[in-house]
Design a protein that fits this description.
The protein has three domains: 126 residues, Immunoglobulin-like (Sandwich), CATH 2.60.40; 160 residues, no CATH class; 165 residues, 3-Layer(aba) Sandwich (Glutaredoxin), CATH 3.40.30. It is built from 16 helices and 18 strands. It has a seven-stranded mixed beta sheet.
């Protein structure tokens, strides 16, 4: 028996359970010492307890209920949290299972459930072929290395074709059934007779596109039962993590194809949408295109939110309140995607900071009094502004930090130290924004650490910095091009010089 990984007492999803004829599954495992046994169902990448039998005696157990179980693949689990085997619960939900624990493979029997009989006969056939292939290596005894390799390669191809034919025969006989669909999930779609490339070897490009184009063949994304199998989740994840090109635009195109195969609002659609939306929002990987511009998977999040969530196509997944939160979040991220132009910032530098602090903005108790004071002082403020657009440089390093932030106290001086190494070699300037109102400690730190940046802050609370730039902690660093478009975002201080050098190198190569 294989080690069981994870059990939760109740299902996470409750979808349309209706009172029907119920289920009655009798188990008789000779030699079992269990006193408790669990009936567990798969849902995506988790397993959930569907029923528990606490009166197991001499291997005899019974799972019984008045409502039908959700159709899908289940697994019997012992009191020691080890699994016995997977089996199907579909239309027929009243049947018996018997076996001798000393030899499950040879004694396992289903009574009253033809579907599971067919499934386990298929598994026995595949297992027999695997055992036969395992014995082939013994036939290479006495061969030299070259002959041995050739012999095993030929046998491997032959056995693969036999196994593929067995799979195909099984799928043909069980076409249109859940059993056929379930087995189809585990079968890799490969062409065993690919054309040859010029070097005489199988054409790897052809093989890749054949595999990719046929990857989801025969999978019915409208059938909710596929969610309750051990293969669907791994198959979908492998396609998006390993098969397709890892690029946000490719991901968007492939996800749209995937959702087009689903039924809006059903379990498959809802779960996939929730999974990929979360995955895209939390994926922090940054790529670069041929022009040196960064790419992030937040673009995928924005696309999914716009097309499927905010548009009203995810009512079964998210409440109206959650949709509003996602919309607000999407609107922030949309304006911070790589390639987006950063909106103007109207800031005050250290030279004029004390003058503005005396105007009383730090004493305002509400947004109304703050606005009133701002409009009262507007004429005095305008000549003092230090704007982002006024920075003239090929690259602007836009930094948000706080004078009371422990990480900032360490990282900002290191950023200066690193940037000093490329001073005069790369055309850059640093627009360093203090995110707090505090003036004296900020100014003192700048002087002590000799931070020769464009040091600014926003005592008027005019720019809504934290929301606009999605600042939850500091420091936060962006790299902008000469037009103030985002080239890289939310990078560490160690990455700044490395990226600036990369951008310069790519720019020179393009302009040769």
């Amino acid at each position: 028996m294989k080690k069981y990984i994870y059990i939760v007492g109740f299902a996470l999803f409750t979808f349309f359970s209706q009172a029907q004829s119920g289920y009655d599954i009798k188990v008789n495992f000779k030699g079992s010492k269990d006193t408790v046994m669990y009936l567990v169902k798969y849902i995506w990448d988790q397993k959930y307890v569907a029923d528990t039998c606490k009166k197991v005696k001499n291997g005899v157990a019974e799972f019984k209920g008045k409502k039908d179980l959700d159709k899908g693949v289940y697994v019997l689990v012992s009191q020691a949290m080890t699994t016995y085997f997977d089996f199907l619960i579909n239309e027929t939900q009243k049947f018996s299972i018997s076996a001798d624990v000393a030899d499950f493979g040879g004694t396992l029997k289903f009574t009253g459930n033809k579907e599971n009989e067919l499934f386990f006969n298929y598994l026995k056939l595949i297992n027999t072929k695997n055992q036969e292939f395992a014995k082939v290596s013994a036939q290479t005894k006495g061969m030299n290395k070259a002959d041995s390799i050739k012999f095993m390669a030929e046998k491997s191809i032959a056995f693969s074709k036999e196994a593929r034919q067995a799979d195909q025969d099984f799928l043909t006989k069980n076409k249109g059934t859940f059993l056929g669909d379930f087995v189809n999930l585990r079968i890799e779609k490969e062409d065993l007779n690919p054309p040859k490339a010029k070097n005489g070897r199988p054409d790897s490009v052809y093989q890749y596109y054949y595999y990719k184009n046929h990857y989801f063949d025969g999978i019915d994304f409208k059938d909710e039962r596929i969610i309750r199998t051990p293969y669907f989740e791994t198959k979908v994840k492998r396609y998006f993590e390993s098969v397709i090109v890892q690029h946000p635009d490719t991901m968007i195109a492939e996800l749209d194809k995937l959702f087009a195969r689903c039924t809006e609002g059903n379990l498959v659609y809802n779960l996939l949408l929730g999974h990929f939306t979360y995955k895209a929002e939390t994926n922090k990987n940054m790529l670069f295109d041929k022009d040196g511009n960064s790419l992030t998977y937040e673009k995928v999040f924005v696309h999914l939110a716009d097309k499927y969530i905010v548009s009203g196509k995810a009512k079964a997944v998210y409440s109206d309140e959650t949709v509003k939160i996602i919309k607000d979040r999407t609107d922030i991220i949309r304006n911070l995607l790589p390639g987006a132009t950063v909106a103007e910032l109207y800031m005050i530098d250290t030279i004029h900071g004390k003058q503005v602090m005396k105007m009383g903005f730090d004493t305002c108790k509400s947004s109304i009094t703050l606005s009133n004071l701002y409009y009262k002082k507007e004429a005095q403020l305008k000549p003092l502004y230090k704007t982002l657009s006024s920075v003239t440089a090929k690259y602007t390093v836009l930094v948000f930090w706080a004078s009371d932030c422990g990480h900032c106290m360490t990282d900002i001086p290191k950023l200066k130290e690193n940037l000093d190494k490329i001073k005069g070699k790369i055309d850059y300037k640093v627009f360093a924004v203090q995110t707090k109102d505090e003036y004296e400690a900020w100014r003192k730190f700048i002087i002590d650490k000799k931070l020769d940046f464009i040091n600014v802050f926003d005592p008027m609370h005019l720019n809504n910095i934290k929301d606009r730039f999605d600042i939850n902690s500091t420091p936060v660093i962006y790299i902008l091009d000469k037009n103030k478009k985002i080239k890289a975002k939310k990078i560490s201080h160690e990455q700044v010089v490395e990226l600036l050098e990369l951008f310069e190198k790519m720019d020179k190569e393009q302009n040769k």
